[in-house]
Automatic annotation (TrEMBL):
ATP binds at residues 354-361, 469. The active site is at residues 44, 113, 161. The gene is nadE. NCBIfam families: nadE. This is Glutamine-dependent NAD(+) synthetase. Its EC number is 6.3.5.1. The keyword ATP-binding applies. It comes from Corallococcus exercitus.
Length: 630
């Protein structure tokens, strides 16, 4: 048996905080060594923080990483531990995103990332260069390229993040060249349902290539990207370990690498495929001999037996229901995003929320409070200030709901009327218009803008983080006010559809029993900027609105295709009415792009986020003739 204890680390980094990031990695490495870990696996770009985006173009940003990598090597020199961690290097005018292999006080090798994602939220092809098959360079006296590394416990094949997502990635040739333990360093953002996708992919790759895979992922949030952490160990297709998510730390498991080789001898398909690769001229990946660099301590490692002590019976089922998993994942992700933005910017002292008594601001408050409970468990409410700013159209019902939830959460609550300011601004706007009439929509926007201005004034004076509370559905059709409720320093739920907002609030009401949530849900959703406003009456039913958004923005369907899909989805709704909803949605969506490109930084939780900078990149100025039937 060749028993190896692998430690999978999730590290919460800050972009550019090289020393602090390295200190976190050092702390975990020392703790791993104290637990007899043989191989410690850390995330992609863990020294620099991820994503660094165009900072990679600064030579100083690259140059500052190497001294920290060398410091890590020096300070772990006495540990019987091999560490693999992410670092950026510059080679002949090209920046490379590398996995660094460290042991015995030395940097033993660098393996650059080959597959650079430039889709969705990723722009790596803009800043980094590609590693290449057969690449054999040197950086500061260290081998850099397409290498594997031989230690006293086996042959390790490092790779970086996207390399595992391509069927044409480096894993295939490295497995055929003798690689046993593939180590993947990742910084893979949270996306709804993506955890299961990662798990399935890693199991597939481990089975296809008959290797053991150790996968580590970043945790935390930088700007609007949220990383959920978590990692995996999978041996030849069999799951060994899944690590906790949304928290920094490490988890360990023991594997027998002899089992990986034995399973290769049994798998005739793998053997035949390898023979075909060799016959076709496949070139073996060179192996760097590191057996003298460090002597690992593995003699006391226990054989990896199932926790429930049966090789034949299933383990206890600890899986969450689909409802709990969806809701808790979103809430954990968004509270992590809010908290890390608050802490890492170092610019704010507390959160500020304009609480309307409606659903969106309520959910935003609950997310901020979820973070505050972790940051200040004894007095979470002290981190938040809530304001209720009534106009002539605000109801006693929403005021009571806002006041009730603030009291239940222990959040300071102020009522600051905008009625006088509203009348003054109407008069000023009318004076500017002359004989033209002030429109009803202008009256609504005046109210929203006064509230936003007051929140900014509060924020400027007390160092408060003004949280924007709008949802994705209403933002997509411009049901929001520039300079008003579209404004804020951080948009918390800007990528959460309205139907999901309501689903989350139903879940939170069930699990917390807050009376304030019940009171908010008792009233139809509406902005209260005019008499008896109901959002679904002014727009369309929210399930249909969200379906339109998904089909048009996600599936890229034209209006005629959308009608076909919606007829199948909502057979109870008259086809002509559905067609009207489609036409209305597409018109509003196209007309509102200029609005949502002005929105504040938003937190990302899916592949369909409404963010021109990172996700849905649409021109503001465009014709619409192509939307009509050919």
């Amino acid at each position: 048996m060749r028993l190896v204890k692998i430690g999978i680390a999730s590290v919460n980094t800050t972009v550019g905080a090289f020393q602090a990031n390295t200190d976190r990695v050092l702390d975990l490495a020392r703790k791993m060594a104290a637990e007899d870990v043989t191989l410690g696996v850390f995330p992609e770009q863990v020294i620099a923080g991820y994503p660094a985006e165009d900072l990679v173009q600064w030579q100083g940003f690259i140059d500052h990483q190497w001294p920290e990598l060398e410091r890590f090597a020096r300070e772990t020199a006495a540990l019987p531990l091999v560490s693999i961690l992410g670092v950026g290097v510059a080679l002949q005018g090209v920046r490379l995103n590398c996995a660094a292999v460290v042991a015995g006080g030395k940097v033993l090798g660098l393996v650059p990332k080959e597959k650079l994602p430039t889709y969705n939220v990723f722009y790596e092809g803009r800043t980094f260069g590609h590693g290449q098959p057969g690449m054999a360079e040197e950086h500061r006296g260290v081998p850099l390229g397409d290498y594997m590394f031989q230690f006293d416990f086996g042959t390790v094949a490092p790779e970086v993040c996207e390399d595992i997502w391509s069927a044409d990635g480096p894993m295939r040739r490295r497995a055929y060249s003798g690689g046993e333990l593939v180590v993947n360093l990742s910084a893979s953002p949270f996306r709804l349902g993506f955890w299961e996708t990662r798990r399935e992919l890693i199991a597939t790759r481990a089975s296809d290539h008959q290797v053991t895979i150790a996968y580590a992922n970043a945790v935390g949030s930088n700007d609007g990207l949220i990383f959920d952490g978590g990692g995996f160990i999978n041996q030849n297709g069999r799951p060994v370990l899944e690590t906790p998510r949304f928290q920094q730390g490490f988890t360990t498991a023991v594997v027998d690498l002899d089992r990986t080789l034995r399973l290769r001898t049994e798998n005739t398909t793998w053997r035949v495929d390898k023979e075909s690769w060799v016959s076709a001229g496949g070139k073996k990946v060179p192996v760097v001999d590191c057996t003298q660099a460090v002597k690992t301590r593995r003699e006391k490692l226990p054989y990896p037996v199932p926790a429930h002590r049966s090789f034949f019976l299933p383990a206890p089922d600890t899986r969450r229901t689909a409802r709990v998993a969806l809701c808790e994942d979103i809430l954990d992700a968004l509270s992590l995003g809010v908290g890390d933005y608050f802490e890492k910017t170092r610019a704010f002292k507390l959160f500020g929320i304009a609480l309307s008594g409606g659903r969106d601001s309520l959910l935003t408050l609950l997310i901020a409070h979820r973070y505050a409970k972790r940051a200040r468990p004894d007095n979470p409410g002290s981190l938040i200030q809530a304001f209720y700013m009534p106009s002539p159209y605000s109801s006693q019902q929403t005021r009571d709901a806002a006041e009730t939830i603030a009291r239940e959460l222990g959040v300071p609550f102020q009522v600051v009327s905008i009625e006088e300011a509203f009348e003054r601004e109407k008069a000023a706007a009318q004076q500017m218009l002359g004989t033209a009439k002030l429109t009803p929509i202008t009256e609504q926007n005046i109210q929203a803008r006064i509230r936003a201005q007051r929140m900014w004034n509060w924020s400027n004076s007390c160092g408060g983080l003004f949280l924007q509370t709008g949802n994705m559905s209403e933002k997509s059709v411009g049901y929001t006010t520039i300079g008003g409720d579209l404004m804020g320093a951080l948009a918390v739920i800007a990528n959460v559809p309205k139907t999901v907002v309501m689903y989350l609030l139903d879940y939170l009401q069930e699990t917390t029993g807050y009376e304030g949530i019940r009171k908010v849900l008792a009233k139809p959703a509406g902005p209260e900027l005019a008499h008896d406003q109901v959002g679904e009456e002014e727009l369309m039913p929210f399930p249909i609105l969200d379906a339109c958004f998904y089909l048009h923005a996600g599936e890229k369907l034209t209006p005629s295709e959308m009608r076909t899909a919606l007829t199948a989805m909502f057979p109870e709704v008259d086809a002509e009415r559905l067609g009207g909803y489609v036409d209305r949605f597409v018109r509003l969506f196209q007309q509102s792009i200029y609005k949502w490109v002005q929105a504040p930084l938003s937190l990302h939780i899916g592949n369909l986020d409404l963010d021109r900078e990172r996700a849905l990149q649409l021109p503001v100025v465009t014709g619409s003739a192509w939307l009509r039937d050919a």
